[in-house]
Amino acid sequence: MEYNTQRSQMLLPEYGRNVQKMIAHAMEIENKEERNLAAKAIIEVMGQLNPHLRDVDDYRHKLWTHLFIMSNFQLDVDSPYDKPDLEILYEKPQHMAYPKGKIKFGHYGKYTQSILNATTKEEDTPTKEYLVTTMANFMKKQFLSYNNDAVENNVIAQHLSELTEGQLKLENPESLIHTNQILRTMGLSKNRPNNNNGKNKNNQNNKNKFKKKY
C-alpha cells in the first residue's frame, strides 16, 4: 500500500495527482517536439478540470503558469507565454500602510469631512449656502443613524462649525428637515408603539371587574 506521505509533494493539489504524474512523465520525454505536444495535452486536461478558470481573463496564461509551477520550473517546453520567474512569482507583496486620519465625530464619516472641506472653498455664495444646508441635513441623518432617538438642530449646526473650524455656519438651524421625516425615510419611527399598552389595559380591566365582583 502506498501512503500519501511516501508520494511526491503536490504543489497545486486542485489539479489532482494524475496531472502531477503526467507532468512528471512529460519531463522525462527526451524529444522536445513530443514534450511540447505532451505539455499542450496536459494544458487541455487542466482546463477541463478547472472550467471556472475560463471566466478569468487570460485563463490559458494562468494554466501555463500553473504547469511550470507543478514542474518546479524544470519542464523545458515552448510556451506561448513568457516563462514565469520563480523569484517574482514568490515575491512577497509590499506592505500597505494603514490609512491614518483623525475623525472628530466618527458617526459622520470621513467623506463628510472631505465634502465640508471642499465646500469651504466654494466661491459662489448661493451654491455655498445650498451645500451647507444639504450637508447639515445629511449630517442630521447620519447622527440619527447612529442614535435614532432625537437630535437638536443647534447641535448639528455646532458640529458643522467645529468640523470646518468655523468656516461654515448654518444660519437657520430650524430650516433642517424634521426628525420624524428623516426617521420615516430610514424606516424608523420616533413615536414607536408600546406593545405592552394592550396588556396593561387588559390587566387594569380585569382588576376593575374583580373589585366590582367582590
Explain what this protein looks like in three dimensions.
- It is a single chain.
- The protein is an all-alpha fold and 214 residues long.
- The protein has 2 domains: 8-89; 106-185, no CATH class.
- The chain contains 9 helices and no strands.
- It has helices at 16-28, 32-49, 59-70, 86-89, 110-120, 125-146, 153-163, 179-185, 197-213.
- Helix 1 runs antiparallel to helix 2, helix 2 packs across helix 3 (59-70) and helix 5 runs antiparallel to helix 6.
* Radius of gyration from the alpha-carbon trace, in angstroms: 35 Å
- Helical content class: 40-55%
In terms of quaternary structure, the protein is single chain
Can you tell me the number of structural domains? 2
Round the mean pLDDT to the nearest integer and report it.
Answer: 82
Assess the beta-strand content as a share of residues. under 5%
- Total beta strand runs: 0
Q: Kindly report how far apart the N and C termini lie.
A: 90 Å
The rough form would be described as: elongated
| Unreliable stretches covering 5 or more consecutive residues | 192-199, 209-214
The biggest sheet, with number of strands, parallel, antiparallel or mixed sense and barrel status, is: none
Specify the number of helices.
Answer: 9
> Helix/strand/pairing class, anyone?
mainly alpha
Please provide the ordered H/E string of secondary-structure elements. HHHHHHHHH
